[in-house]
Each structure stands twice: as C-alpha cells, then as structure tokens.
Design a protein that fits this description.
The chain has six helices and 20 strands. By secondary structure, it is an alpha+beta fold. 52% of the residues are buried. Bound molecules: zinc ion.
C-alpha cells in the first residue's frame, strides 16, 4: 500500500485530501493543487483545467470535483490543478498566459529556460505529468469559439500501450459528438502520450457560456473515465458502436493570416464539401484579404464567432 504521496510539494496521507500551492520557479506563478490520496490502491490520475483560462464548463466541473471527491471512495490518487492558468482565469484572457502572451497548450516539450509559460509547462511536466498513470486535460471552446463537444486522444507516441489505452478511454467520454485522434505533439496531453502517460483532452462548452447542464455533463464525462480507470467506484458506461462519438482521424486547424474582420460561412454543426468557401477576412475598409476553402469533405469542429480576428489566432477547424 502507498502511504503519503506528494505532487508539486503538496502531500497527502493515505485516505486524506490536501490542498496547496506549487510555485513555478523563476516566475510569480503558483498552481492551486488538490491531492486526493485514496484509501485503496489504484492508479494515479492527473486532472488539469484552465490551461486556457476561460473555458468555463470544464473549470467549474473540475472545481466541483476537487471539492466533492472523497478519499474514501477513491482507489489510487487524483491530483487536480485548477486553474492552471490563474492569471488568465481571473483576468478573463482567452488562449494565452497573460504575462508572455504564449499559448500554454503549445509549449510542449517544455523549455525550462524560456518565459513564464515555458516554465509553467516545465513544472507541469516534471512535477506532475511524469509522475502519474493517466492525464485528463479539460478544455472547451474559448471565449471566441463555437463548437460541439468532443474528445481528443494522442495519436503520436513510441509507447503503443499509451496510445491504445488513451483511445480506449476516449470511448468512455459519453457526452461527445466526435472522438479525434490528434497528430499534434506540442499540447499538454499529447506530450503526456509521448512520455508514455495515456491521456485525453476533453472539449465541452463554448463562447464564455456555462450552465448547470454543461457542468453536469462534464462531470459525468470525467467520472466515467475515472470508473474506466477503476479509480472511482461503479461500472463505467460504454456506449454501443452506433451511439458512440464519431471517429475523426484527420483535421485542419486554420489560423488567421491577417488581423481584421472575420466572416465565417459555416456553423459549428455543419458539414463542408471539398472546395467549399468556408470563410474570409476583410480589412477595416472592406477589402477581402483572404478566403478559406475546405480541402476535403469534412465535419466542422470549431468556428470562431467574433467579428474581430487577430493574425495567428484560430478561425476554423474541420476534420474527417
Ligand atoms: Zn482550451
């Protein structure tokens, strides 16, 4: 049996829950950490939330789980960091770490000698990700983004077991329209996969909204994965093949080539045809700067809803 465990300097005796702050050396950032050390043996699961600070259903669901989960019902350990990006959460800043303007979910593998976001990624990796058996990173549509719910699982790793377990776990995310195999390597959860830690990135919610129903669905998604991992009691729900999220294995994620005005021509639940015009950007005098066309027949995964668009920020995503 494990006795006391510690993550990021926050320790909890067996059967106990403890909270505290993990400092990120070389910055003024601290992560709020909850360590739940179960009474029984089992896997160690890391749940991170608010790597993007304004994806509210995920953040509220994880707040509620951190407060309500009881060590007596847990087999193994659950380590929760929420909000990872406190500054972005409090100051309502989408996408980025406010102090350096970097997207923390694009900074893996991390550079310990970089700026604040890089150092945050380094501590996440060294103190948390590398010490757990499974990583659930929770997201949703950010302030400008409309999207259905889905789950990403890593598609690139030399650790075949990590890929297989991640894909299997994705089937247990019950409130999801799509399950998407990622080809990315620089996200927190894809880095986990590369490190041999099976992982998921959950996406539910959009555009600053959050409701009781969305938070409940989010908690059900997380708890069902925890049941699959045998960390939380009860039999997990496995939807039948025809009820399950549709599999997406190839995605296109378009970023804005210009700052200006954004005009999407498709919506969040649309399908697109190869060659279809899906949106365009105008300058502030009405000149069309660029038009975007679908590369293949696909399902729309995300559409930015704001009129304003900034060069380099996402505009639309689709996949098949
Ligand atoms: Zn996000």
């Amino acid at each position: 049996m494990k006795e006391t465990v510690a993550f990021g300097g926050i320790s909890a005796e067996q059967g106990m829950k403890n909270t505290g702050w993990t400092a990120v050396p070389g910055t003024d950032v601290k992560f709020p950490v909850t360590v739940i050390n179960g009474e029984k043996e089992g896997k160690t699961v890391l749940i991170t939330s608010a790597i993007h600070g304004c994806e509210y259903p995920s953040i509220e669901a994880v707040f509620q789980l951190a407060e309500s989960l009881n060590p007596g019902e847990i087999s193994g350990q659950i380590v929760i960091i929420n909000p990872v990006n406190v500054d972005a959460f409090i100051n309502r800043r989408p996408y980025i770490v406010p102090s350096d303007g970097k997207n923390l979910n694009r900074l893996f593998p991390p550079d310990p000698n970089g700026t604040t976001g890089d150092k945050m990624a380094w501590v996440l990796a060294e103190e948390f990700i590398k010490k757990v058996d499974f990583h659930i990173d929770t997201h949703g549509g950010d302030i400008p983004e409309t999207q259905p719910s889905y789950v990403y699982y890593p598609g690139i790793s030399e650790d075949e077991d990590a890929l297989r377990i991640s894909e299997e776990a994705a089937k247990y995310v019950i409130h999801a329209k799509y399950m998407i195999r990622s080809q990315a390597t620089n996200h927190a959860y894809t880095y986990s996969g590369i490190m041999g830690v099976p992982s998921l990135e959950l996406e539910l919610g959009e555009c600053t909204k959050w409701s009781v129903d969305e938070v409940e669905d989010y908690k059900e998604n997380i708890l069902n994965v925890l049941k699959f991992l045998k960390v939380y009691p009860g039999d997990p729900i496995l939807p039948s093949e025809d009820q399950r999220a549709k599999r997406i294995t190839e995605g296109v994620y378009l970023d804005a080539d210009y700052s200006g005005r954004w005009y999407p021509l498709v919506g969040r639940d649309d399908k697109v045809k190869k060659g279809q015009k899906i949106g365009y950007i105008k300058d502030l005098f009405g000149n069309v700067l660029i038009e975007y066309f679908a590369e293949f027949d696909a399902e729309v995964l995300m559409v930015v809803a704001t009129l304003a668009i900034k060069k380099g920020d996402p505009v639309i995503a689709y996949g098949r």
